[in-house]
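Good morning N.,

You mentioned wanting to compare the apo and holo forms, so I went ahead and generated the holo version with zinc ion. This is what I fed in:
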Amino acid sequence: MIIDIHTHIIPPQLPDFSKEFGYGEFIQLQHHHPKKAWMIQGDKKFREIDINCWDVSVRLEEMEKFKIDIQVLSTIPVMFSYWAKPKDGLKVAQFLNDHIAEIIHQYSKKFVGLATVPLQDINLAIQELERCKSIGFKGVQIGSNVNQKNLTEQEFGEFFAACESLDMALFIHPWEMMGQEYITKYWLPWLVGMPAETARAIANMIFSGVFDKHPQLRVCFAHGGGSFIPTIGRIEHGWECRPDLVAIDNPNNPRHYLGKFWVDSHTCDHKLLQYIIDEIGVEKIVQGSDYPFPLGESIPGELVRTSPLTSEQKDIIFNKAPMEWLKLQVE
Ligand SMILES: [Zn+2]
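and this is what came out, ligand included:
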């Protein structure tokens, strides 16, 4: 059985939130072809998406074709809308969550849901997290930063505590990549910025002590943890040579935290996948394809399937590790 924990979905139609709230560049969908739509942000085309981004029957057909048994559904990070007024951010989150809730109820054996929450207001975020728990979600997806605020304990500790007490898995996805306005050419925000953004989130959580303060928190980072694990030697060396800068909130060696969080398998590279397995253990790697986007796996599961890993290791990545991270029971 294969569980793909990293797939994105959007409702087929979105309300005109900018008109309803009277401000802002909330994403709009413009269907210009029966199987294609533009995501529009303000007056700019953000991304062209295909029918598999919103049509559940097409997704089910493709899952059959790619031998994916269960997709874990999350919204597209640009929909987070953390910049909106809190009550409006809540409305957007509720709209997106209700859409995913419908699908996971209708096809409970094929789809699992990750919620989105208005993190610009911790109380509203927790309120929506509780609601989503009660309607069947197994976890929540959040951004690597919230309006460029780092995910440090001081700002987000209450939310992490709520994830722990509600037993909700936490998926952290890069978005609004730091410095992206300076690297607009060559798609560099996606190629260079995204891995760095994820590393930023992991480093902030380790150095601010999140993993010690919230030992029950089950966190998974997208894209193999970005550039964090490949640069752990440098990060550890910095901790050794300048503890006055690095170890100010947490005295522990950052390497100590490898194996305390999950990462998805979407590294696009067999050697890097093996390196990550060596560093954090295969039981902390979960199949993630970033379906249905071009930068994701064009054949979900293909990287692991064609890797030189043993069938036992593949089985861990495809189902044992995802089930443990999500606390899923599948018969
Ligand atoms: Zn993604």
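The mean pLDDT is 97.

Happy to go through it together on a call whenever suits you.

Best,
F.
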